[in-house]
Amino acid sequence: QVQLVESGGGLVRAGGSLRLSCEASGSILRINDMGWYRQAPGKQRELVATITGGGGTNYADSVKARFTISRDNAKNMVYLQMNSLKPEDTAVYYCAALRTMSYSNYPTTRDYWGRGIQVTVSS
Q1: Pseudo-torsion of CA 64, 66, 94, 80, nearest 10°?
Q2: For an engineered disulfide with 116, which of 12, 63, 92, 99 has Cβ 3.0 to 4.6 Å away?
Q3: Rounded to whole angstroms, how far apart are CA atoms 110 and 123?
Q4: How far apart are CA 123 and CA 108, in angstroms?
C-alpha cells in the first residue's frame, strides 16, 4: 500500500503565504504524476495543480501565477507554495499520487490520496 501525509496547512491572512508538503511512503515502485486538489465546503473537489515525473506542471486558472507546485522524486515528496492567498482559497487540500504503481497493484496503477489538510484564509 501507499500512504500520503500532508503538512503545512493552517490559518493565514489574505495576501499571506503557506507551503504545503506531502510525503508518499509505502511499497512504491513508481509514481507518475503528483498533485494537489482542494474541496471547499459545499463544493466539489477540484484540481489545483499537478506535476509529472519530468517536472511538467498544470495549474487551475484560479491559482496560476500565485501557486507553485514542485516535487522531489528521490524523496517521493510534492510541495505547493501558495502566495497572495485569497479567502476563496479556503478549503481542505488533498495530496494525490496519480497513476502509481506499487508492489500490491503491479503491473497496474491506481491513484492514492492523502487525508487532506485545512487551509483557511481570513479576509
Answers
A1: 110
A2: 92
A3: 38
A4: 45
Per the DSSP assignment, residues forming a β-bridge with 81 are 19, 68
Quick: pLDDT tens for 54-66.
Answer: 999 999 999 999 9
CB under 8 Å to 82, separation ≥6 — which residues?
17, 18, 19, 20, 63, 66, 67, 89, 119
CB 35 within 8 A of CB 87: no
Residue with cell 501525509: 5
* Cα–Cα distance for residue pair 12/54, rounded to 1 Å: 32
Which cell is 91 given?
Answer: 478549503
Buried b (16+ CB within 10 A) or exposed e, 33-53: bbbbbbeeeeeeeeebbbbee
DSSP state of 1: -
The amino acid at residue 25 is S
Mean pLDDT of the chain: 96
The 10s digit of each residue's pLDDT in 28-46 is 989 999 999 999 999 999 9
